[in-house]
């Protein structure tokens, strides 16, 4: 599933292509992909004023206090195409724009979704209301406070979108390795100074991944169709059974919060 850096990259590559354009039609080719009370037709004639992100959700901002929300889930892609491009077999939503360009939401496994929202709909959306703070915005003291009284594994807390938003398996593993913290340690057992260090390592990893346009392992592409390259910098994620790049000993693999977790039992305590 695309995580914060991938969705941020999509927003940044999409915004220049669609800002200022007017939506002329919305074609929902798979009814299950569209959610929420507002209809696709409610977007017709709306001007796009930008694109952004909250957690792992992409937002296409529209004039008149409306937005089009996309959750990519496992295999969703948002790609901008020139006029005349035909929708593919996995295209679930098509937005036609006034310059002839077409924005496709493709999703092989149909787990992703789109929904139109106004301010009231967004405020009432249970998913939106439960999202935790953004890791690139939260300060050190507030970050430490998120974990100091929680008994769940530190990685499970990082993955919990109600605790902190936007982090998935890749960036949880990578930031914990850089901070030298075992992923299965209870959050409340980690010393405040080490939690502060984790916040900084997490910010470092996320910013580096954004600069590399994210991590492309299977389906992820930017809005321009390009792959990311941060996967070339992985220290632990996806390296089960290989040697630690810091100490040279074998990495361990386990399960935390039901997710495959790779870590160094010697470098992470």
Q: Care to give the gist of this entry?
A:
This protein is 26% helix and 23% strand. With 269 residues, the chain is an alpha+beta fold.
How would you describe this structure to a colleague?
Helix 1 (4-18) runs parallel beside helix 7 and helix 4 (140-147) crosses helix 7. The protein folds into 2 domains: 4-129, Alpha-Beta Barrel (N-terminal domain of MutM-like DNA repair proteins), CATH 3.20.190.10; 140-263, Orthogonal Bundle (Helicase, Ruva Protein, domain 3). The protein is an alpha+beta fold and 269 residues long. A hairpin with a 2-residue loop joins strand 3 (48-54) and strand 4 (57-62). Strands 2-9-5-4-3 form a 5-stranded mixed sheet. A 4-stranded antiparallel sheet has the order 1-7-8-6, covered by helices on one side. It has 7 helices and 11 strands. The protein is elongated, with a radius of gyration of 20 Å.
What keywords describe this structure?
Helicase, Ruva Protein, domain 3, four-stranded antiparallel beta sheet, 269 residues, N-terminal domain of MutM-like DNA repair proteins, alpha+beta, 2 domains, 11 strands, 7 helices
What's the structural blueprint in terms of helices and strands?
Layout: H1 4-18, E1 23-28, E2 34-35, E3 48-54, E4 57-62, E5 66-71, E6 76-81, E7 91-97, E8 102-107, E9 113-118, H2 119-124, H3 126-129, H4 140-147, H5 154-159, H6 169-179, H7 192-211, E10 252-256, E11 259-263
Parallel strand pairs: 2-9
Antiparallel strand pairs: 1-7, 3-4, 4-5, 5-9, 6-8, 7-8, 10-11
